Amino acid sequence: MAEKGIITRVHTSPLALDAAEWNALLAHQAHATPFMRHEYLAAVHTSGAAVPATGWHPHYVTLEQEGHLIAACPLYLKEHSYGEYVFDWAWARAYQEHGLRYYPKALMAVPFTPVPGARLLARDEAARTALLRAVVAWCEEQSLSSLHLLFGSDADMAACKSVGLMQRTTVQFHWKNRAPGGGKFHDFDHFLGALTQDKRKKIRQEQRRVRDAGVRFRWALGSNISAADWDFFYRCYERTYLEHGNPPYLSRPFFERMAQDMPGAWLLFIAEREGKAIASSLIAVSAYPSSAGGQNDLDFSPPTAYGRYWGALERVDSLHFDACYYQPLAWCIAHGFAAFEGGAQGEHKMARALMPVATHSAHWLAHPAFADAVEHFLEREDAGVAAYLEELEGRTPFRTATQRAANP
């Protein structure tokens, strides 16, 4: 459809979109991440992870004006709520109990990736709002039950508010490279010195257990991650999923595409004992450190690392914490990264100095009575989340100014 010279198109595959145009829009977003790059979304599709056969039906929406892409977003029709990390199972059950159809629903999100960032890619605020209005109108035309935008940016949430979507707050845990008194941490010991004695002692004990077990780490970045390293990582990743009774969401072909199309976005830690690799942790990075050599175009600001995937072939006490938190944090400090995002949920991450942050989603429900009920629920839930965040802030692992003054 066309309105004021703007043409709305719906594409049933991300491969139908021009990668350069999509990425050019992404480059202009205030909160961009590597996971919204066309290469990442295409890999999720071509590897078979988010396709109709798995209950993910792509319907990417674009706005064009005078032949140029001015806004775009990933949109999926979902037959379930798996792989989302913002839970609406209770809403689906309520619909079912009242004889109403909840699925398929519409979802604006990066599949299997609970990383906050821009979802509504647009050249400006007006285009962003127009895109969201077009998506809502399309959902109404398709008689869908609902629309959900997950882990959106501040600009996304502002557009959602203007269009009338309900907003929901959840909690994640992120680390900031922010030393007491200003500036960044000089090294890992400097970071540990900012923690309370009990937290500092616990981290040192956990790292000592790993070292005493004879485990050492090496890391590889970008094109320096060998094919053998990728193969070993996937063995670990798949093993961990299977041990929990589920096949992994992402297949080996997905990671092959990452190695080929987005190598500079990945940092791999491998734990070795007596020369044998036993575990690995894969981290995404939004920038490619100049000290590593090479060059790429993934330099989103500020430089951020994202904890993503882990797996082990052998069990070693505290190895998970070292591979997934301490080694990446030390690396971030050494390379001047501003933040490390630890992924969905996980209050235990506070003991590793990842602090609580609010993350946001937005929701539209077609049924007026259910929309009213959900809105009242979200008001109560939001008050509870606010109280939870305040309570967590009071349990900071960092030393207070008084403690630092008494024992600098």
Automatic annotation (TrEMBL):
Keywords from the UniProt entry: Transferase
One Pfam family, short name: FemAB_like
A single GO molecular function term of this UniProt record: transferase activity
Top-level taxon of the source organism: Bacteria
Organism of provenance: Simplicispira hankyongi
InterPro entries associated with the record: Acyl_CoA_acyltransferase, FemAB-like
Protein name per UniProt: N-acetyltransferase
